[in-house]
Amino acid sequence: MPRPRRHTQHRTGLRVPIEPGSRAGEWSVVRNLRETAGAPAVADAILGACVAVGLLAATFAGVGPVVANARPLDAGAVALAATVAAAIAVRRRYPIAALVVLNAVPLVWFLARYPGQLITLAPLIGCYTLAADRGWRWGLAGAVPTALIEIIAIRVVLGDAETAGVVPIAVLLAATAGSAGAAVGYYRAVLAATRAQLARETQTHEERARRIAVEERLRIARELHDVFGHAMATISVQAGVGLHVIEQRPGHAREALAAIKKISDDGLTDVKTILGILRADTSTTEGPEQPRAPRGGLDRLTELIDTAQAAGLRVELNLDGDLRPLPAPVDLAAYRIIQEALTNVLRHAEARTVRLALKHEPSRLLIQIRDDGTTTSADTNHTASGRCGHGIDGMRERARALSGQLTAAPRPEGGFEVYAELPIPNPQ
After folding, report:
1. E strand or H helix at 406, and its extent?
2. Which of 127, 221, 331, 341 could form a disulfide with 369 if both were Cys (CB 3.0 to 4.6 A apart)?
3. Cα end-to-end span (Å), the chain
4. DSSP code of residue 72
5. What share of the chain is helix, strand, coil (3-state, %, to 5)?
6. pLDDT by residue (tens digit) across 90-99?
7. Tell me: the pLDDT tens digits for 220-231?
């Protein structure tokens, strides 16, 4: 079975392309309903043949009132019956023309003095079809002349004495056919609109699910980038220190290896947590105490600073404001921004000192990271164009996700500065 194209919905065998914000989807559903309703053209041809055969059989059997001076069935009667069959066969494609023909046949039938009144039922099929296809207004426009023509056709045969009894019957039959057709047409329109609405809602749901999946992948990618970037940068520095002092000062080399082990263990724990979220069997294979998000928060800030200082970077921390617990998204974003900023200093800046300032305000958290490294014009261009990595872009995305903002740029007096404002929802 071929795979369906995008923006295509399958409902009961229908393949309907949907265009959001337009009526094309509804018309597509209507067309497909007509095209897949059991081969309408074939069904109408069979119906027309059955009506023609039944008409001829009833006439041959003498069903209906006796017509004085009636003609026997001949080729003319067969031709009129065949005309009825042809009109019914094309009634869906040409409903007005079919109704005109079906109304004309009884007049010719009775003028030719063929016996039988069942021929007067054939126009009711055309009246029903017109109402079902075009609505109740067209159905009313078809029912009125149909009733009049039936009255005239029967009057030609039965005479004036019977006309009074024929009028209510003809009007009732035409009205019933038109009403039934209008009801069926309304049902089809409601069904088409409902299916089109369902298709649009399904498409919207699928697009929303895809968007959520993309956002989740980006979030996980940022987490992996931050975890791996910080761990690998610190490990690289510590490994360089260990190689440098391994012969002269083995004790310092041992400390560097211990730091590498601790950083690796912490990084692997975070990565395991992130990947655990992606596993479908997490809820059945891991206990309830298994964390559902990577560790991170300002409660680990001291540990983060110790790791940076162990790599040879001096960090000066300045806390200002009333310290209080932060919402989890703000807490994690603040930690990751600081972590990424320190990682960039270790990897790209020849800095010895970093000044980290945290200011807690009632409605926002301000973060400022400044280093005393050297910044060249080439570094500035690379930072502006974003070719040196996704770290700064990731920090900006974290701030924007919280309706905050982040700037990262070289300082005029030297070094680099990262400044972030993170709003705190529902401040106490």
Report:
1. strand 405-410
2. 341
3. 59
4. P
5. 65, 10, 25
6. 888 888 888 8
7. 777 777 776 667
